[in-house]
């Protein structure tokens, strides 16, 4: 009979802005691998980061090796319970060689004051060879690939005595052949009796080493499956049904967007004055598209007015009246050393000023009640702008009048009431001829928000 490693009983965790998880019952034994699968906002990531520390459950019980856990700091998870949380590739110090990173970065009780460098390198080589890894202990870590860092992070945790590994998004940035090498390492880790709890955007890649698959939806476990039943998961965990695309005839006044993500290239036609929703169940796909738009894709471009505008950087796109607005990054920030009025006017100064003299045109624009309606709060225009305010940003784009406005994850990051307000303002931009493109996760029902829906 396998030894019990982890048992969660009626666990409930709450931590905004993640989706709450509740009623979680989970059992994991030594040498087993369990994949937590579900939509991006299903709650699986909050459950993973619970093992990273500093999150206490609202209710429920946690047992590790039949001992109840009462402290949830990273040190208690690792040193006392031998539960190690790894996110992506391990961080390594370039001023140290591989063995020094492997040995000196481990947790210690500071009871050894003298280090034997030769013994340290021999022990590192031995630990790596036991897991079938052939890295040079004296080698530099600067030339190590992301896959190497992932494998060394796992090996280092096992060497420190890990009984349970919680792995999140270790496939990020890896190709399928590279993941195959990680799978070989995970098989050897399982043979040593170490349990693995895995959460990844590409969880299907890790099914060959998994014993269990736990399907999570809306913060609750909906099904637990053995490895022989993995083929049935798509029938059990149905993703949010995408609203059917409305049959809108293609108008002449439009443009094409060439999107490149993870080696795939997609070309779609968009129409001015419409909201188009690009949906994906995989956050990695959306991140790839967003990075390509900001200059990370060689083929990504807008085909507009008979020419191709390549996405070299957001500044180039802005000069062509194409605006990128994400939930994070510089485009979502306001300049705190400027007033609210100056932040609204900033992108439009070239069109309203002659040289440095924009005071009089600015006053006429900001007092135009027919244009702004109730959008502007007159007393606050002269005050310093906050770091972020979507209301001010929408006023900025209303005045700038972009031809294309691309928003990434903005609706998902706001509450329902704010979503309705944002949607109303976006519709106002569309009535003035702006094409609005929304990049959103498919874990929620966005029916009725767009004129056209595209699944990527």
Please explain how this structure is put together:
This protein is of the alpha/beta class and 456 residues long. It is 30% helix and 25% strand. It is built from 15 helices and 19 strands. A six-stranded mixed sheet has the order 6-7-8-3-9-10, sandwiched between helices. The protein has a five-stranded parallel sheet with strand order 16-17-18-13-19, sandwiched between helices.
* Oligomeric status: single chain
Gap between N and C termini: 45 Å
Q: How large is the radius of gyration?
A: 26 Å
Structural class per helix/strand content? Answer: alpha/beta
Share of helical residues: 25-40%
Count of individual beta strands: 19
Strand order of the largest sheet: 6-7-8-3-9-10
Strand percentage lies at 15-25%
User: Uncertain regions: pLDDT < 50 for 5+ in a row?
Assistant: 236-252
Shape summary? elongated
Provide mean pLDDT, rounded: 82
* Alpha plus pi helix count: 15
The major pleated sheet works out as:
6 strands, mixed
